[in-house]
Write a structure and sequence with these properties.
The protein has a 3-stranded parallel β-sheet with strand order 1-2-3. The protein is built from 9 helices and 3 strands, in the order αβααβαβααααα. The protein is globular. With 155 residues, the chain is α/β, with parallel strands linked by helices. The termini are far apart. Helix 5 crosses helix 6.
Length: 155
């Protein structure tokens, strides 16, 4: 009830739906598409935005490609460009009760120079890209050195 009420509000024009590529999560989208369709009666601008989350970073991408093909057929859904991959950095951050940007920053501060030169904080970069795509604003980071590292790696 709360979801439908919020989606009917004219101030809300997007609902973000994190989704893991695969049959289990994809199976819920037809119902969600119907919910959005009903909300559009009260809020014409409502659209569902799918965030593909926990994507495989290695191996076959069949589930990802099949999921994208299915989502593209749904009338009231759009796939966001940013993909969040299933990275160990997210698990480490969760174990330490940190967000991944804090966790990777801490890990990089502990690295030797030769390790740091090769390391790419991919999970943090993905979060930065997702934030930018959702808000159209740059990800604010207080630590200027860490900000420079992330900016450099996105260029």
């Amino acid at each position: 009830v709360e979801l439908r009420s919020a989606m009917s509000c004219e101030l809300v024009n997007e609902v973000f739906i994190p989704l893991r590529p695969g049959k289990a999560d994809i199976g819920t989208l037809s119902k969600m598409n119907e919910v959005i369709e009903k909300a559009k009666v009260y809020n014409e601008s409502m659209i569902g935005k799918i965030i593909l989350n926990q994507c495989r970073s290695v191996g076959k991408q069949i589930a990802l490609h099949n999921s994208i093909a299915y989502i593209e057929k749904l009338e009231y859904m759009q796939i966001m460009k940013t993909r969040i991959f299933n990275r160990i950095a997210f698990e480490y951050a969760l174990e330490d009760s940190l967000i991944v940007v804090e966790s990777e920053k801490r890990d990089m501060q502990a690295m030797k120079k030769y390790q740091l030169e090769k390391y790419i904080p991919k999970a943090s970069l993905e979060m930065k890209e997702l934030y930018l795509e959702i808000t159209n604003e740059e990800f604010f980071i207080e630590d200027s050195l860490w900000a420079k590292i992330l900016i450099k790696m996105t260029l």
